[in-house]
Each structure stands twice: as C-alpha cells, then as structure tokens.
Design brief:
mainly alpha, 1 helix, single chain
Length: 102
Amino acid sequence: MIKETVDAVRVAEMEAERQISVAKENAEGEKAQIKNKEADYRTEQMQMAKAEADREMNQVVKKCKEYDLKMEKQIEEKVAELKALSDKKMDAAVEAAIHALA
C-alpha cells in the first residue's frame, strides 16, 4: 500500500510537472503574442501620427502658397502703380526739358 501511494505521488508529481511545463509554454506563447500586438500597435500609432503630421504640413504649405500669391499680387500692383507714376513724371520731365531747350 505504501508503494502504491508513493507511485501515485510520483505520477501526480509528473502530471503536475507536465502541467507546469504546458503552462510555461502557453505563457511564453501569450507573451510573444502580446509583444507582436505591441509592435503592431506602435507601428499603427506611428503611421497615424505621421499621417496627421503630413496633413498639417500640407495645410501649412497651402497657407504659405496662398500668402505668397497674395503678396506677389500686392507687389505687382505696387510696381504697376509706381511704373504709372514714373511714366507720368517722365512725361512731365520730357515736357520740361523740351520747354527748357526751346
């Protein structure tokens, strides 16, 4: 009877060791899955952040281009205005030179 009890304890210990081994393997597998999910999540978050940064950068570039066009238009208007004033003064200077020479 003692031998049977010792054998039963050994069998129980072997079964317990097998269950511990299976549990460790399962835990390692779950750890690996969690690491993969973590990497996937990090990649996804980085892609989302990059997409948002790209959208914001495009908006800034668009605003800068619009500002550049607005400034160019104002500069062209001012140049045209100054050219017209210059032409008007040139005509008056030519008239004055002609009268002075005459």
